[in-house]
């Protein structure tokens, strides 16, 4: 499956999302990122967006570009950020500083040893954190990326991929639900 196949999953009412997929999933539309980073980001954010149809399509496309280790890193980023984003969003939002003084007591070994370049894993963590809405994690991963001299343009491209992949997942889900609702009404 390629970008066009993924775009074709998006219903007509979300034409803007299809156009954005065409753009962000190509290196010319995601300045500062290489093809491998784009594929990693698309896969990690598809997992984070939790739409099986989109995830399956992106996985199929990713097998042509990514190694097994890289695919597992994308899975690891989606999984670990799924946990961390909840925990650290809680710490950020709660109005009691006592919680931030307590140890997290959560295993996060994949962050130290992700199986891919650590900067690439930080890009995945940032993008997944943006989808999951954890401001504390977004800020933390952005700081690490900038410390490693990743350009603002590359950071923005990673988050744009996350935004478009999430929107595609929503549009596909609405399209599938709408089709089922229309069929039931008939």
Describe this structure in words.
- By secondary structure, the protein is mainly α.
- The chain has one domain (3-8, 15-185): Up-down Bundle (AhpD-like).
- It is built from 9 helices and no strands.
- It has helices at residues 3-7, 15-24, 35-49, 52-62, 68-93, 109-112, 118-132, 135-147, 152-185.
- The longest helix is centred in the C-terminal third of the chain and has 34 residues, at 152-185.
- It is globular, with a radius of gyration of 17 Å.
- The two termini are 33 Å apart.
- 42% of the residues are buried.
- Mean pLDDT is 93; it is low at 180-186.
CATH architectural grouping: Up-down Bundle
Can you count the helices?
Answer: 9
SS-based class: mainly alpha
Whole-number radius of gyration? 17 Å
Regions with little confidence, pLDDT below 50 for 5+ residues: 180-186
Give the beta-strand count.
0
Mean model confidence by pLDDT: 93
**What fraction of the residues are assigned to beta strands by DSSP?**
under 5%
Largest sheet: none
**How far from one another are the termini?**
33 Å
CATH uppermost class: Mainly Alpha
Q: How many structural domains does the protein architecture include?
A: 1
CATH fold annotation? AhpD-like
Fraction of residues in H or I helices:
over 70%
Order of helices and strands: HHHHHHHHH
